[in-house]
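Example 3.2
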Amino acid sequence: MKPSEFLKQAEELRQSEQSLYWEGTFADYLEIVTQKPQVADLAHARVYDMIMAAGVDEPEGRPKQYRFFRSEIFGLDKTLQQIVEEYFAPAARRLDVRKRILMLVGPVGGGKSTLVTMLKRGLERYSRTEEGAVYAIKGCPMHEEPLHLIPEDLRADFRRQFGIYIEGDLCPVCRWRLKEEFQGKIDQVPVERIFFSERNRIGIGTFKPSDPKSQDVSELTGSVNLQMLTEIGVESDPRVYNFDGELNIANRGIME
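Structure, written as tokens:
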């Protein structure tokens, strides 16, 4: 391959990535979400939809075989069926199991890390598809769901009219911006399409435990920005907080 041909491929990839990007206002996003409610799926539902979108084989007398895992995991059909049907499926329906942490236990080389890696890489690819598109408030450190802008008092009516469930509230930063930058006008808040990426720390977090005596909880929840605190002078101001913990990063996606 000639260098010019390689550069052409790189440019085609860049254009392909650029064509996926979308930016608009919350008013524009409402048009999208009311036509395609799946874009507002919660994290468990998104993972479940991703797995099911790849297809399922149901051989007679044997566990289901999920094609999503077929390329790298072998001989664990029963275990995978339990994970999908007993965890992700009910969690996608917002049952109480979604409040639990999925813990994989098994011997070394049993496929635990491979399974998690497949879910993470799968979400990265899925968020780049039409079916798995994810949108967030532009500038939000937690890439949160734009529907959080809808006031609590209107959410029941919104669900009755459009059949879309809203869970969660604005993060402190977005709440401050809505009041100070947009004077409470939710229709003017900018929204963009995001793409999950472990490398770019969007929607996929990885926590690496170490010595509990030296490890700080801020690695999970974020920390106070002392420089901003000096400038602003008020610790309760959301702008002095770094929402860069792994739980913040993994919001709407997955954390290992």
